[in-house]
Amino acid sequence: MSAIEIHALPGLALIYVTGADAAAFLQGQLTADIRSLAAGSSTLAGWCSPQGRVIALMRVSPIADGFLAVLPQELCAPVAERLRRFVMRSKVTITDASGELAIAGISGREPGAREAALPQRGNLTILRLPSSRELLVGTAPQLEEALSGLPRATAGAWEARCIAEGEPEVYSTTSEAWVPQMLNLDLLGAVSFTKGCYPGQEIVARTQNLGRIKRRLFRYHVTGSTLPGAGAALYLGRAKVGEVVRSVRHGTTAQLLAVVNLDAAGVGLTDGNGEVICCPEPLPYAVPEAEGAR
């Protein structure tokens, strides 16, 4: 196995949030503590509706004149347009760069090997992710030059890695379907309960403080012939107990993440036809169980 792998990620795009008030603006919009981000770091963050439902998930990183936020390409334009409504008199510019820049992923077990393999990264923006991964942002020619000759991962490898890490995603079909805790954002460091107000903050805080978290994100191995997509319902017997968050078939295996009722966690789930398709798999972090016992 190669020390590194390069992943083409055409399904991702980015928004620039720039200007003198960019940090204050995002601090008042996203669930994560944006002001605590150091140069070269990144954080997962949710943008919520006033009802506390996650409109979109973003991977946010500081740049020289503001921040960039990576999210699914299908959400870039609508999220950028919706965010602009809140700028008002702030010195902030929101730019949908999905048509100008491309994104690739790099994964590997040895950070030193990745750095040696990419000596010409000066024109690329680098977002460091957990578990020896990075996102590389640049024009298509810049990425092609920097990644030339490096081993390409097979299709679906990046998605499979994200699912194995228990990282959720929100798409247009699932926008505003879940509160942050249902997606385990609080367990992934993507929610700050001390930084102050943002849209939906009161509901998110109340959910946390009152222990009303009855649904969580879980990982499953798919054994059926059909791979359910984002938003598809999952059942325990005849009762609907969850919805698919993201899924992938990679090589000979298929897996997914789903938001599931805590009292249905740890057992096999079925699709609408009653076929057993989902068998529980562990996540790399602990999911609280006590909430479901109340």
What is the terminal-to-terminal distance? 46 Å
- Order of strands in the sheet with most strands: 11-12-13-10-15-14
| CATH H-level homologous superfamily name of the largest domain | Aminomethyltransferase beta-barrel domains
Helix content: 10-25%
Biggest sheet character? 6 strands, antiparallel
Mean pLDDT: 91
| CATH architecture descriptor text of the largest domain | 2-Layer Sandwich
Cα Rg: 19 Å
**What fraction of the residues are assigned to beta strands by DSSP?**
25-35%
**Structural class, judged by helices and strands?**
alpha+beta
Name of the CATH class of the largest domain: Alpha Beta
- Which stretches are low in confidence, meaning pLDDT under 50 for 5 or more residues running? 290-294
- How is the CATH topology of the largest domain named? Alpha-Beta Plaits
Q: Could you tell me the number of beta strands?
A: 15
Shape: globular
Query: How many domains make up the coordinates?
Result: 2
* Helix/strand order: EEHEEEHEEHEEHHHEEEEEE
Instruction: Give the number of helices.
Output: 6
Question: Could you outline the blueprint of secondary structure elements for this entry?
Answer:
Blueprint: E1 4-8, E2 12-18, H1 22-27, E3 43-48, E4 54-63, E5 66-72, H2 73-84, E6 93-96, E7 102-108, H3 111-117, E8 125-129, E9 133-138, H4 140-147, H5 157-164, H6 201-209, E10 215-222, E11 233-236, E12 239-250, E13 253-261, E14 269-270, E15 276-281
Antiparallel strand pairs: 1-7, 2-5, 2-6, 3-4, 4-5, 7-9, 8-9, 10-13, 10-15, 11-12, 12-13, 14-15
